[in-house]
């Protein structure tokens, strides 16, 4: 099997890259270790930045997003029993975020790729790579119990933190930057009506909490917990009681409902440099991880492949290699900006284990500054809705 571009991983990054290349007349193949059902059902991020929403509409993937996505023109910060609204639209010239689950983005992408006749192989785990610094890289994979080989001119590793792509790069060629945060999130998906029309970020003496939603009937909510905590220690009644305490405010009621899913996610920051080795390029979680507080994970992955699709388009249209050469440096500028914003949001909103009273007062002072200073609120809003994306090219639908 051969195509000009090979892609490992059928998450948002890999699938969108395949779609963007298709719109430029560049063929690709995509290998995914899991089943189609699995990737379409796994619950992940749900907040899309304005540039992400604009791109999905631009490339013909916005129909269901427009019908089912929940546009949020602001968010709420809750601390010391009071609530402060950050007005994204007013502070950023009309920009907003849209709540639309990652699994829904994946469904839309898979449907579009299959309609286009793409080579999209599920249950096809990649097992090894070869020739990454040659003109014809290859990937060994297994399909229907048979070992096979796929070849390409360029290989893109969009196979997540635990995939084989990054591990295929010699360790001495990578610099790894990593930070483990001293807390985790207990996340639930519940059949309950949202308590408001926008996300609520709450800092409480007992820890952080986030109230989000996926639809008008389903909420996604999070509690700060210890990284060593266990889901078994959190029966449903305890979760609801803790959420009610951390969101407590005058006139606020948190609706309860059946919890359909729960899990604990550790929080970490991770970046590797560079994002290229020979003819292998890394994108998405294979290259970087951010704490979820700033809602940057999927948006960063989409920003990566937007750059990469443009660079590959320049190579195949005009023989340009400068954009490919610049991919890593250009992408990493946005990555580190997102790491900083996510760190800032995380530090401001979470109670540090063993933290002292001085640190607590600093955090509340920062929250008060964001709530009362237009400049500080604007900085939060601009970063949250997404950094402006240059549009040096347009896709033809």
Automatic annotation (TrEMBL):
Native organism: Allonocardiopsis opalescens
Organismal lineage: Bacteria, Bacillati, Actinomycetota, Actinomycetes, Streptosporangiales
Entries under InterPro entries matching the protein: FAD-bd (IPR002938), FAD/NAD-bd_sf (IPR036188), RIFMO-like (IPR050641)
An example molecular function term from Gene Ontology annotations: oxidoreductase activity, acting on paired donors, with incorporation or reduction of molecular oxygen, NAD(P)H as one donor, and incorporation of one atom of oxygen
Annotated protein name in UniProt: p-hydroxybenzoate 3-monooxygenase
Domain FAD-binding intervals: 3-341
Keyword annotations of the record: FAD, Flavoprotein, Monooxygenase, Oxidoreductase
Parts forming coiled coils: none
Pfam families in UniProt: FAD_binding_3
Domain of life, per lineage: Bacteria
UniProt KW Oxidoreductase keyword: yes
NCBIfam families assigned to the protein according to its UniProt record, in alphabetical order: PRK08243.1
């Amino acid at each position: 099997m051969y195509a000009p571009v090979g892609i490992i991983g059928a998450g948002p990054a890999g699938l969108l890259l395949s779609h963007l290349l298709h719109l430029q007349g560049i063929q690709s193949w995509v290998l995914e270790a899991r089943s189609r059902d699995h990737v379409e059902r796994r619950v992940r991020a749900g907040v899309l930045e304005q540039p992400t929403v604009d791109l999905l509409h631009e490339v013909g993937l916005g129909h269901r997003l427009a019908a089912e996505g929940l546009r949020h023109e602001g968010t709420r910060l809750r601390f010391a029993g009071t609530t402060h609204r950050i007005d994204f639209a007013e502070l950023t010239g009309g920009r907003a975020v849209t709540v639309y689950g990652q699994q829904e983005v994946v469904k839309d992408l898979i449907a579009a790729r299959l309609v286009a006749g793409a080579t999209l192989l599920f249950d096809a785990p990649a097992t090894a790579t070869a020739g990454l610094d040659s003109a014809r890289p290859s990937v060994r994979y297994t399909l229907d119990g048979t070992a096979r080989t796929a070849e390409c001119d360029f290989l893109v590793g969009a196979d997540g933190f635990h995939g084989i792509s990054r591990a295929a790069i010699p360790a001495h060629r990578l610099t790894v930057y990593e930070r483990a945060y001293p807390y985790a999130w207990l996340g639930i998906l519940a059949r309950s009506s949202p308590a408001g029309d926008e996300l609520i970020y709450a800092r409480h003496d007992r820890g952080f909490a986030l109230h989000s939603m996926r639809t008008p009937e389903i909420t996604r909510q999070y509690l700060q917990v210890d990284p060593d905590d266990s889901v078994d220690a959190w029966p449903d009644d305890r979760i609801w009681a803790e959420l009610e305490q951390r969101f407590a405010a005058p006139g606020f009621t948190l609706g309860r409902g059946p919890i359909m899913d729960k899990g604990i996610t550790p929080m970490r920051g991770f970046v590797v440099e560079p994002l290229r080795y020979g003819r292998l390029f890394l994108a998405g979680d294979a290259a970087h991880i951010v704490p979820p507080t700033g809602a940057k994970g999927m948006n960063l992955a989409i920003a990566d492949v937007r750059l990469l699709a443009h660079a590959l388009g320049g190579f195949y249209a005009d023989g340009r290699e400068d954009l490919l050469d610049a991919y890593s440096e250009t992408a990493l500028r946005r990555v580190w900006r997102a790491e900083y914003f996510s760190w800032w949001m995380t530090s401001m909103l979470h109670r540090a284990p063993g933290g002292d009273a001085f640190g607590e007062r600093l955090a509340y002072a920062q929250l008060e500054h964001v709530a009362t200073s237009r400049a500080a609120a604007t900085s939060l809003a601009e970063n949250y809705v997404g950094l402006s994306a240059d549009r040096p090219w347009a896709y033809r639908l």
